[in-house]
Amino acid sequence: MPYLGLGVYLSKEGSEVINACRYAIEAGYRHIDTASLYDNEKGVGIAIKECGVPRKEIFITSKVWNSDQGFDSTLKAFDDTIKKLDTDYLDLYLIHWPVKDKYKETWRALETLYKDGRVKAIGVSNFLLHHLEDLLTSVEIKPMVNQVEFHPYVIQQQLLDFCASHQIQSEAWSPLMQGKIFNVRRIKELALKYNKTEAQIVLRWDLQKGVITIPKSVRREIILSNAQLFDFELSTEDVKSIDSLNKNLRVGAHPDHFNF
Ligand code: NDP
Predict the structure, then answer these.
(1) Are 147 and 9 in contact (CB under 8 A)?
(2) Which ligand 1 atom is the nearest neighbour of the CA of 125?
(3) Could you give the CA distance from residue 99 to residue 66 in angstroms, rounded to a whole number?
(4) Nearest one of 177, 197, 173, 179 to 187, comparing CA atoms
(5) Which SS3 state, helix, strand or coil, does residue 71 take?
(6) Amino acid 46: pLDDT
(7) Out of 12, 91, 111, 172, which residue is the most buried by the measure of CB atoms under 10 Å away?
(8) Which residue out of 69, 124, 176, 201 has the highest number of ligand 1 atoms within 8 Å of its CB and is therefore the one to mutate?
(9) 131, 110 contact by CB (below 8 A)
(10) d(Cα 179, Cα 216) in Å, to the nearest integer?
(11) For residues 191-203, b (16+ Cβ closer than 10 Å) or e, as one string?
(12) pLDDT, the chain, mean
């Protein structure tokens, strides 16, 4: 799974998402993160078909939406997703949110898809420790990824450690706090110190924390710049100073209190 991917939440279906994926692939990204909720799987599929890079070199993630959870409805949602993406398999399929009383049935459907070879990896999103512990009591195949809100204000170190100890790869959504990262003083200071952008500092920190990251942008120069992470390293001290910014302040919903 490539460490860096392009997020496409709120990238509009049609030319906006097609162009964003195209810019990303040109810039070297080989991983796109979409979801049926984003309503842009068609555009993602078109961009991948037209980009000139073989399908097997691009890692595509999608997610089953909350209202589709359950065994049969997840299988159907998966069919719709790959039809829209115009592909015959997914690289990663995630349960988008831990819908109470549904996620275990949904997981059984993901296991079925995995065993049938229709998806190469299966995982979850927005699962807290207690959701994972509960799910793990009944699985045949363990989740391979947990995609969660992760940025300097929400670190959830205990969750990261739990995932690492169960070989579950952690992945960051809203790694740039949906744009709010640019107002954080410590990040600005580090950007000056390393002569990098604030986004590059935070995305590099993700990398050094071992967390896969999927920043979203629709602008060509930003997509390119967000990928310039591999030519510098934050000192251990500076990684710790970003860790110390944590205040459990979310930009998105809390996984125990969402109402969608
Ligand atoms: P991000 O933290 O990636 O921030 C995206 C915002 O920051 C956009 O407004 C973008 O603007 C702006 N931006 C990006 N890079 C820069 C930069 N270098 N300089 C200035 N502005 C910048 O937020 P997202 O919420 O989009 O999270 C990333 C991805 O995570 C999503 O796209 C989606 O794929 C996934 N996700 C998953 C969730 C889940 O429940 N599993 C929930 C939320 C997101 P612009 O586009 O105009 O450049």
Answers:
(1) no
(2) 41
(3) 6
(4) 197
(5) helix
(6) 98
(7) 172
(8) 176
(9) no
(10) 10
(11) beebebbbbbbbb
(12) 98
The answer to whether 175 touches 214, Cβ cutoff 8 Å, is: yes
What dihedral angle (degrees, nearest 10) is formed by the CA atoms of 153, 159, 160, 163? -160
Q: Hey, what domains does the chain have and what are their CATH numbers?
A: 6-177+211-228 (3.20.20.100)
pLDDT at residue 135 in the model: 98
For residue 153, the model assigns a pLDDT of: 98
Cα–Cα distance for residue pair 249/174, rounded to 1 Å? 12
Residues 178-193 have pLDDT tens digits of 999 999 999 999 999 9
How do residues 78-115 score in pLDDT, each as one tens digit?
999 999 999 999 999 999 999 999 999 999 999 999 99
58 within ligand 1 shell (Cβ under 6 A): no
Which SS3 state, helix, strand or coil, does residue 6 take?
strand
* Residue positions counted in the chain: 260
Looking at the chain, which runs of residues are DSSP E strands?
Answer: 6-7, 31-33, 59-64, 92-95, 122-125, 145-149, 169-173, 212-213
Ligand 1 neighbour 152 (Cβ under 6 A): no
> What is the pTM assigned to this prediction?
0.98
Could you give the CA distance from residue 139 to residue 145 in angstroms, rounded to a whole number?
A: 14
